[in-house]
Automatic annotation (TrEMBL):
Gene behind this protein: cjaA
CDD domains, A to Z: PBP2_Cysteine
GO CC entries: extracellular region; outer membrane-bounded periplasmic space
Annotated keywords: Signal, Transport
Signal sequence segment: 1-20
Name of this protein: ABC transporter, substrate-binding protein, family 3
Taxonomic classification: Bacteria, Pseudomonadati, Pseudomonadota, Betaproteobacteria, Neisseriales
Amino acid sequence: MTFSKTLSLFSAIALSFGLAACGDNGGSTNASGASNAAPSAASNAGGDSLARIKAAGVIRIGVFGDKPPFGYLDANGKSQGFDVEIARNMAQDLLGSPDKVEFVLTEAANRVEYIKSGKVDVLLANFTQTPERAEVVDFAAPYMQVALGVVSPKNAPITSIDQLKGKTLLVNKGTTADAYFTKNHSDITLQKYDQNTETFDALKDGRGVALAHDNALLWAWAKENPNFDVAIGKLGEPENIAPAVQKGDQALLAWVNSEITAMKQDGRLVAAYEKTLRPVYGDKVKPEELLAK
């Protein structure tokens, strides 16, 4: 399935699912669409979280549902993507089966809250490690490196930040792109959306002159949308993408660290790249440009 078809498919699937994974009803949605009550934050903060996960026989991992090729829903409503492959490896190692993971769909703006409230055990939703976020969650070892990029129409390319002054730039709420432009470029008008689908649709509709997001996502989207180009491929220094757990959950943090280290050493991280990202990027992007060492 192409990137653009996956994005449009998400809206229909999300509606049929009732967006249970992203709502405020205290439930979460797994890969088969079943609803489960989420434990409170206190149940994660106290005791042995690893023992609790093993006793439950399932690990709840937060992923995106509308951000291919990292996390998205396929035609059968099941989670797929690079982050999802890492999550399945974790479930295999901890619980003996890649299917013993409950994927909790999240949006950029509620990722921190899902960790803090205990709605997820581990977050793998393409989460950039920042000092501000590190104050409220604990990050494990990174598995990717990305930078910000800007995509715009080929017939009206945005090749420098100066061209955005006085114009409308599209971003997702709660992303590093939102934070970067809010902090550094107050002369640029930001139009913010909750879901990636909405943001990319807004760019196609001309509601902004460009869209800022992680460059890895933009390269994939532009490949499927040839009328657009990532004319600014890198803003600022590369940043780490890393799993996150609840603040102070040392046992789970140590285990996730060991998992990421093992996947780097035994080749499973590269295998996940080859399965989910290579078909999208081809030879345009090399694995070593994205995978953390």
